[in-house]
Amino acid sequence: MAGIIVYVLGKDGEFNKNSLGAISKAAQLAGEIGGEASAVVVGESFDDAKLAELGKYGAAKVYKVTGPEGVAQPVVDAIEKIATENDIKYALFGGGLLGFEIGAGLTARLNWGVTAEATGIRAEGGKLIVERPVLQDSAIVDVAYKGDGGVIVSRLNAFEPNDSIGAAGEVVDTPVEFKEHSLRAKLVARGVQEGADVNIEDADVIIAGGRGLGEAANFSLADDLAASLGGTVAATRAVVDAGWFPYAGQIGQTGKTVAPKLYLALGISGAIQHKVGMQASENIVAINKDPNAPIFEFSDLGVVGDLHSIAPKLTEAIKAKKGA
Asked: Which of 70, 103, 108, 298 has the fewest C-beta atoms under 10 angstroms from its C-beta?
């Protein structure tokens, strides 16, 4: 029986969405390989009742570790101990820089294999096979592990949370003797990244702007349209590099991965590097004056025309429909 453990992050009393998605995926996979999914939380931000809620997402056990929050090495110590004592063979992370750092540490500590940027995982013959894009996301390869276990770091939003999998999880107080070097770093403060208020990962409606907007000031068209729909504005790498929009709102291979119910693209060509970050959107609408723009190949609705005249009219039509 091989278990799967997921490291869970949280902030302001709530668990990270990507961590919850990873637990739900781990629960599905654990059932297929004859094991169970568990979660580990390091820190003192959550009480037992809150930790037990992770059971709804599929965590049969929640390992509660008292220790420094927000730094990698204490988590490496904790997962090493838990995995060794509980026959856990896989560690799954829901993406993010901290996940990469912890995953690298675990790989070295446990002599496990590691796969980053995972977009899919399946069970075969009692083991996990990881799917990840390669060659600038133009192809998907399968990765298997030769050794005793594996570390999997997924892309952000690769897996959707499901809070109807189980009941309350068993909270297990787990004392960990941290290594001396693991306590040399500590989280002093959480910084505020410029544009950090741009929360595109949880948005149901995203209005994304590209080079076709012409200049930074024209992002007001996207702002107005987003306001009328109750959505959030995002951008392509090209306009972020040009300084038109903060990096926090960048979608694509070097930005964030999103999966909104509606993705409306203004002046975006649809390069493969951008496509990989938004192709999971439920409905894709594109407005572009170039009829040969690649984005029309994977849009549900494509509008060929000048976005500078279409977007304001669309905004007004939505407002009129809503009676605003």
From this structure: 108
Q: Percent of the chain having pLDDT more than 90?
A: 67
The C-alpha torsion from 81 through 82 and 85 to 87, rounded to 10°, is: -130
Rounded Cα–Cα distance for residues 243 and 230 (Å): 25
**CA angle in degrees (0–180, nearest 5) for 254-7-180:** 100
**What DSSP letter does each residue of 276-287 carry, written as one string?**
HHHTT-SEEEEE
Could you count the other beta carbons within 10 Å of the beta carbon of residue 274?
26
Enumerate residues 6+ apart whose C-beta is below 8 A from 307. Answer: 212, 213, 221, 266, 267, 287, 288, 289
**Would you state the torsion angle of the CA atoms of residues 110, 111, 112, 114, taken in this order, to the nearest 10 degrees?**
110
Q: Which strand (E) or helix (H) includes residue 319?
A: helix 307-322
Contact (CB, 8 A) for 101 and 151: no
Looking at the chain, how many residues does it have? 324
- Please name the amino acid found at residue 18: N
Report the alpha-carbon distance of residue 279 to residue 299 in Å, rounded. Answer: 9
Would you tell me how many other CB atoms lie within 10 Å of the CB of residue 15?
A: 22
The pLDDT tens digits for 47-90 are 999 999 999 999 999 999 999 988 999 999 999 999 999 989 99
Strand 205-209 and strand 232-235: the pairing is: parallel
Please compute the mean of the pLDDT values over residues 171-197 and round it to a whole number. 81
pLDDT in tens, 252-296: 877 888 999 999 999 999 988 888 889 989 999 999 999 999 999
- Distance, C-alpha 289 to centroid of its chain: 32
